[in-house]
Write a structure and sequence with these properties.
mainly alpha; 71% helix; two-stranded antiparallel ribbon; disordered C terminus; 4 strands; globular; disordered N terminus
């Protein structure tokens, strides 16, 4: 056995210690759960929960497998499962093929074919910083969501169950055949994969390939083959789960993106490593959701009646906060390269460029049509949100996938302040200040998490806001809308479209000054140190927890200001998932900002123009571009993430100079080839 494979095998066997105790605990919980289920007459919901949980378990197994072997946490498994379900629907319903043939074709196209693409993506991201790995999967998720919505439409596609539906009685409970088939298949898959990892040489090699593929290759085991097998198996599990869940819930990509957060929660409870615990967690989540749906069915409170749908998000956040940190290993981190520092723009160029940019911004309301002014005002609001996001990502190396929640807090707090009779400026400040403690709460995971795990935790927070808090009276309320007013400042007509544009522009200039001041201050240097090496920063007696709290709080403060300005354009704010403050926009903004560069001010401005303004002009206002805009943004974000690994030669004097440099050994080798003495 090779050194590296032996090491991986030792880690696997070390993970087996304590399994008898875990098995005993599982047996006790099983007996206790059976007693409680009988006593409360919830066996039908337990059976449904086991079946649903088995489907989520398949997706979670695929997620854990690919994460263990590549270090890539595939946030896009919901989109991949939806793609498989859509393709299956096309072959099964549209083409009229028998379901086994349709399922096989969908598995080959999406599962196996998709795994080849994903394996290449993972290979190119092997040495990428953790932030760019997450950005790549966000880009893939945004790409799939836009592509599938454009191709199949936003409506839910329904079709009947294709597996056997005969039922039989187990005691007083009727169990359907398809539920048994799904559960047995998931259980067998978990057991088979567990034994494969434990006993098969290739299975052990899958755990070793992420850390040092070169060492693995020295022992006559191809890292490429290992990765391809791992991605093929994991991708197939996700694909199969999408086809299994479709008959019961229908096919709608946005719904499936949320459903597959259950797989994230199960994987988190399993420490993103343990396959049996991941399977058991998925089953537990499925049972809990089904039982709560029954117990809360009579509730008149909208939030409380839908609480069962929030179980996966609560489990995800709680698991990432409570699972021991030693189990949350950032796989492949040792191979990650550092991001190249951006070069500051020379002052003699920065000042004239800033003046020209400001002059152009001032001229906008006078050169564009009156109907387009509001679009530019919205872009200013989003530019502030994007700048606050850039402060997190590019300056401090942190990542937030819930940024529109901060913006929503600002907008709804502004509404409450205005209703209380506060002046516009004071209400704006109140909205921004209330977002600070929210940002501080979201920063708590960053005290112990980073990279992939921090991104997933903030994504969970964003979903909790969207599905649990938005509908409360504290935010958008049961009606899901809040009306706000534009300002009347200093006797000027600032409530008109043109006047509100200049108001938003003035507020944005204050935000720009704040960001630049922070970047040039001691806090800015600490943030750059945090992004470069938190351990080195801590070694210099700097409290990194306080630094994380400050940057999240400041970022939330700025995002809330942007949210207030965005709400002022239509003079209303809604928490609809497809609206400006929806959770998915938090992902899209990360994707757009990524391919617009890492400049603290210029990049957010360009990103806001692309995200908001460009769609009102030809040819970008076409139906095709509107439908597939997200696909373009996602593809560009993915391209930026993998571009450094492509090693495309740079053109320019500095690039030529670097290529032209030759080591003494290269010079001697060239002389030998030419027949000259070395």
């Amino acid at each position: 056995m090779t050194t590296l494979i032996t090491r991986a095998g030792n880690l696997t066997r070390a993970g087996l210690k304590g399994r008898p105790q875990q098995a005993a605990l599982a047996a006790v919980l099983l007996v206790l759960g059976s007693y409680l289920a009988s006593a409360n007459n919830v066996w039908p919901f337990v059976i449904n929960g086991i079946s649903d949980g088995s489907i989520y378990a398949l997706a979670a197994l695929g997620l854990v497998l690919t994460f263990k072997t590549s270090g890539i946490f595939n946030l896009a498994i919901g989109g991949q499962a939806a793609a498989s379900a859509y393709v299956f629907y096309s072959f099964r319903i549209d083409a009229g093929l028998p379901w086994p043939v349709a399922a096989l074709l969908a598995l080959l196209i999406v599962g196996i074919g998709g795994s080849l693409i994903l394996e290449r993506m993972a290979y190119l991201l092997a040495e990428a910083p953790p932030v760019m790995k997450i950005v790549a999967t966000i880009g893939l998720l945004v790409f799939l969501q836009s592509l599938l919505t454009g191709a199949y439409g936003p409506a839910t596609l329904q079709f009947s169950q294709y597996l056997p539906t005969e039922s039989f009685a187990v005691g007083e409970v009727n169990v359907q055949a398809f539920q048994v088939i799904i559960t047995v298949f998931a259980l067998a898959s978990t057991a088979g994969l567990y034994l494969y990892f434990k006993r098969a040489r290739l299975g052990v090699a899958m755990q070793a390939v992420v850390e040092d593929p070169n060492l693995l290759a020295l022992e006559a085991t191809s890292p490429i083959v290992v990765r391809r097998y791992a991605w093929a198996i994991g991708s197939s599990f996700v694909s199969i789960s999408g086809m299994l869940i479709a008959p019961g819930l229908g096919i709608q990509v946005n719904q499936m993106l949320l459903l597959y957060v259950t797989a994230f929660g199960a994987a988190a409870l399993g420490g993103f490593s343990s396959l049996p615990l991941t399977f058991a967690s998925a089953i537990g989540i499925g049972i809990t959701m089904n039982i709560l749906s029954d117990k809360l069915a009579g509730q008149t409170d909208v939030v409380l009646s839908q609480l069962y749908t929030q179980v996966p998000f609560l489990v995800l956040v709680a698991a990432l906060l409570l699972v021991p940190k030693r189990k949350l290993i950032e796989r492949g981190a040792k191979r990650a390269r550092r991001a190249t520092p951006i070069r500051p723009i020379p002052v003699n160029l920065l000042v004239p460029a800033g003046a020209v940019g400001l002059a152009a911004a001032v001229m906008v309301p006078f050169v564009v049509s009156k109907s387009d002014i509001n679009q530019y005002t919205t872009a200013i609001g989003f530019a502030i949100v994007l700048a606050s996001l850039g402060l997190l990502i590019w300056t401090s190396g942190q990542l937030s996938l819930c940024h529109m929640a901060f913006a929503a807090v600002g907008a709804t707090t502004f509404f409450h302040a205005q209703n209380a009779g506060w002046p516009w400026l004071l209400a704006l400040l109140a909205g921004a200040l209330v977002a600070i403690p929210v940002g501080a709460i979201v920063s708590i995971p960053s005290f112990r998490l980073s990279g992939t795990y921090l991104a997933v935790a903030t994504f969970g927070f964003g979903l909790l806001f969207q599905n649990l808090i938005y509908a409360t009276d504290l935010m958008f309320g049961p009606a899901d809308i809040r009306s706000v007013s534009r300002p009347e400042l200093f006797g000027l007509n600032t409530s008109s479209d043109r006047g509100y544009y200049f108001t938003a522009l003035a507020v944005s200039l204050v935000c720009v000054a704040l960001i630049l001041t922070v970047r040039r201050s001691r806090l800015g240097r600490l943030l750059r140190g945090l992004g470069d090496s938190p351990a080195a920063l801590a070694a210099h007696a700097t409290n990194t927890r306080v630094t994380c709290l400050l940057v999240f709080s400041l970022s939330a403060f700025l995002a809330a200001i942007g949210g207030v300005l965005i709400a002022g354009v239509p003079q209303s704010a809604s928490g609809n998932a497809g609206g400006s403050f929806g959770y998915f926009n938090s992902l899209v903004l990360v994707a757009v900002l990524t391919f617009c560069g890492r400049r603290p001010i210029l990049s957010p401005v360009i990103a806001a123009v692309l995200f908001v303004v460009i769609r009102i002009y030809e040819p970008f206002n076409s139906e095709f571009f509107v439908d597939y805009q997200g696909a373009l943004f996602g593809a560009l974000a993915l391209g930026v993430a993998i571009a450094p690994a492509l090693r495309v030669p740079t053109v320019g004097r500095r690039g030529v100079a670097r290529v032209g440099r030759r080591t003494p050994m290269a010079v001697r080798a060239q002389r030998v080839r030419e027949g000259a003495p070395a």
